[in-house]
Amino acid sequence: MTDRPDVRATAPAGEPVDVLGVGFGPANLSLAIALQEDLPEADAFFLEAAPDPVWQGGLLLDGSNMQNHPNRDLVTLRNPRSRYSFLNYLFEEGRLIEHLNLPLEFPLRKEYAQYIHWATRQFHPQVAFGARATEIAVAETDGTPEYVVTCADGSRRRARSLVVGTGRTPFVPQPFAGLDSPRVCHLTRYLHTVRDLDEPPRSIAVIGGSQSAVEIVLDLAHRFPQARIVNYVRKFGLRLKDTSPFSEEGFFPAFTDYYYRASRASKNELDAYMRPTNYSSTDADVLHHLYALIYEQRLDGDQRVFVRGNSEVRTADADGTGVRLKVEEVHTKDVSTDHADLVILATGFRDLGPHQGQEAYPALLSQVIDRFQFDDDGYLVVEPDYRLRPRTDGTPPLFLNGLCESSHGIGDAGSFSLLSLRAATILDGLRKQGVV
């Protein structure tokens, strides 16, 4: 089967659709596939802010891999016979045998990005690209409530139900919040930023202790071999990722159900255990690569890459040549200063919640959030099928796709682990609500 024609969306803006998806990254792409395969009569449409989205475009580093089994793709756990599987993508692209011969445990991130793009192309008639949603409201038409989504260009779309899959908001630590400088970027803009530099930086600060932070440090060391690169980490050092198969069962659907039923206190305890499987930790291969690099530089008497543990940036001020940092040792309280031509924030993303570093709800829902319930701990009440619980009757169904780690656990993090099964759950929810 060949790809569908690459055409712009033609669905009439004035007619309500059954399902309107906001965002067309992997989460809503997986839902679009599920709708096509399991409920082709449903009238679905999607809005995507990027004119030509590239999955993890800012982090498609040379040699970086998926850290995820390739069969945990857009479809396979839901429908192993789907033509939208990663395996079939390789077959249609003529790379299946060659790929199977690769001496790699996981696929290259670049190849998975091409897989996502391949699947995305086949849904172009159902997507408006370059359509950034700016406001969501509820209005009544002939006595029936429906969503009205307004885009940046003033266009509007109407729908009987909404699925918000915009991805999580980048987390920018307080010292850098509001700092308007082209010399500071979040990891999501990493490659775009370094490729646009007028001249090589002499000093670089990388903030954070995640897998992405280590990958970025290694990429910077290769890209700018003469630069001084300092990785600032709040913990003692860089932690090895928990890859125990017992811990990895946190990415099983049974754990999602278990976590959902747990109290908030139990969720917090489970989070503390599960976080090293996905956050603030690093795979052994890149961690060992970085340690060996630093060792060899010390051996040569020319160390240019440093990891500063127990360190937290307290203030950051931009000047004409870069960013001045004041850094505190978290235990001794000693304060040092640094100056970086470039600062990369490998600081992750915000979860939904009431606490520091979280956001109470996706900002796009600000005009309708009063229609939905929060629990006594300040969290949005999300049903098992990812539908927000309304306060009163008359609110059309609204689902969150890929934003519900605080209610559904680590399997709802920004990975492919349960992506296709979540799409199936949302589809069942749409059925139960009588939308499709």
Automatic annotation (TrEMBL):
UniProt cross-references to Pfam families, sorted A to Z: Lys_Orn_oxgnase
Recorded catalytic activity of this chain's protein: L-lysine + NADPH + O2 = N(6)-hydroxy-L-lysine + NADP(+) + H2O
The organism's place on the tree of life at top rank: Bacteria
Gene Ontology terms: biological process: intracellular iron ion homeostasis
GO MF entry, a single one: L-lysine 6-monooxygenase (NADPH) activity
Pathway(s) where this gene product acts: Siderophore biosynthesis
Alphabetic keyword roster: FAD, Flavoprotein, Monooxygenase, NADP, Oxidoreductase
EC number annotated for this UniProt entry: 1.14.13.59
Cofactor: FAD
Family: Belongs to the lysine N(6)-hydroxylase/L-ornithine N(5)-oxygenase family.
Name of the molecule in the record: L-lysine N6-monooxygenase MbtG
